[in-house]
Amino acid sequence: MDTALRIPRSLFAFSIFYGGMVCIAGVLGNKQVALGPLAVEAGIFAFLLLVVTSSAVAELHGRDIANRLVRIGFVPLVVSILLAVVVLAVPASPQMEPARRDAFALMMGGTPRIWVGGIVAYGISQTLNVTIFSWLKGREGSTLLWLRAGIASILSQIVDTLLFVSIAFLGVFPIGELLAGQMLAKVVLSAVLVPPAIYLFVGLGRRLDR
């Protein structure tokens, strides 16, 4: 008798994708990109994909499953940070080019405040995204998917920025301009990118589950 646990194909695929985005977001965040007058850390693109993925899972499989996905996301996030700490502590090979060695250390290094800020901001903002999205669905039904996803993303990304910047940099330097700039950039990107992306993800999920 086959007693293997069966999960929907969309949930399996989205879970793998979600874990990858959790790991790569911190690496991409080391580059700041210019989007017209806005400057934003490139990690926002991975975080927006996390938002879209968790919202799509909430739409297809419910709030509880989406929140479980967010909680499981702590595993690759924390493990990737611990691996970075270990790799940075291991001496580099003498044959490694000094410029490459120093660039790697600069890119992968971080302070405990930055790491804690990333973990706290991830957990709270992603849970908030699922909560707002699901609450709006409960009020509006299955209509206005683009609006529900956009509002949830905007509000959760504002909270994400406030938490991360405050935990990581408060007291180190003035953070007012950084907060305002990052929030504005994330609001604009959430409003522009999330609505079309959520239809793509939900449509793909339904196709996988046929």
UniProtKB/TrEMBL annotation:
Transmembrane ranges, per UniProt, are: 12-29, 35-57, 69-94, 114-133, 145-171, 183-204
InterPro entries, per this entry? YhhQ
Q: Which UniProt keywords apply?
A: Cell inner membrane, Cell membrane, Membrane, Transmembrane, Transmembrane helix, Transport
How this chain sits in the membrane, per its record, is: Multi-pass membrane protein
Q: Which Pfam families does this chain map to?
A: Vut_1 (PF02592)
What subcellular compartments does it reside in? Cell inner membrane
Query: What's the superkingdom here?
Result: Bacteria
Q: What does this protein do?
A: Involved in the import of queuosine (Q) precursors, required for Q precursor salvage.
Q: Which family does it belong to?
A: Belongs to the vitamin uptake transporter (VUT/ECF) (TC 2.A.88) family. Q precursor transporter subfamily.
The family database entries (PANTHER family) matched by this protein are listed as:
QUEUOSINE PRECURSOR TRANSPORTER-RELATED
Q: What is this protein called?
A: Probable queuosine precursor transporter
Q: Which organism is it from?
A: Sphingomonas longa
